[in-house]
Write a structure and sequence with these properties.
Length: 228
């Protein structure tokens, strides 16, 4: 069977990792509110739906926190102080909790021999973060070998700006239509990548996205079926 794609591009948040649930819970405990910790998993994707609905430029995590707090049932009267508490901890180092099966799924994708890149809205630290946590790195190292790690903090603009995707395409050395991008946002990932000529798929582990207009996967291992 002929391969449809020659490379994959991965978002990081919502695809490999989410914010550490323990640190989020600690921040909410300290501000004295109630919440449903069992809802933290799907709440990330509810929060990203709120980000998509706002479609702010650049991507605004004020929208993320508002969506997250609603999804985990923080009382409306507590949300301003809960928002402030989470805003203090929602920084790059807190994005360390692996999604279930993400490490195995990334390794399975790498084992197909396909080229791998990263396209992330971050703050200039994502390459170091991924290497230190042994996810991947450009060249040899403790994680999966990648060809390029594109960080919006380095590029100077964020997804869905074409310059971010163009940097990944250049680093992969593959025609855009031969690259499949996987992300947890419709606006910034699915539509942003498609507008630049890449294939795109929405990471939706809990089946919350109702749109029939784009492809969805529930885990990274499902991406393998889309490559051929």
């Amino acid at each position: 069977m002929a391969r449809r794609y020659d490379a994959v591009s991965l978002d990081v948040g919502g695809v490999l990792v989410v914010p550490d649930h323990g640190l989020l819970a600690l921040a909410l405990d300290r501000c004295g509110t109630t919440y449903d910790r069992a809802a933290f998993g799907p709440a990330h994707y509810e929060a990203m739906a709120a980000v998509d609905a706002a479609a702010s430029a650049p991507e605004d995590f004020t929208d993320y926190l508002s969506g997250f707090l609603a999804a985990v049932d923080v009382p409306a009267a507590d949300r301003d102080r809960a928002h402030a508490a989470l805003d203090e901890v929602l920084v790059s180092p807190v994005w360390t909790q692996p999604l279930p099966g993400a490490r195995a799924g990334l390794r399975a994708i790498a084992d197909t021999g396909i080229a791998i890149g990263v396209t992330s809205n971050s703050d200039g630290t994502i390459a170091d973060h991924l290497r230190r946590h042994e996810w991947l790195q450009v060249g040899d190292g403790p994680g999966v070998r990648a060809q390029v790690v594109t960080d919006s903090g380095v590029v100077g603009v964020g997804k869905p700006h074409p310059a971010v995707y163009e940097a990944t395409v250049a680093g992969l050395g593959v025609a855009p239509d031969r690259i499949l991008h996987i992300g947890d946002s419709v606006v910034y990932d699915v539509d942003g990548a498609a507008a630049c000529g890449l294939g795109s798929v929405h990471m939706d582990p809990y089946g919350r996205c109702p749109s029939p207009d784009h492809a969805h996967v529930r885990s990274l291992v499902e991406v393998i079926d889309l490559l051929d």
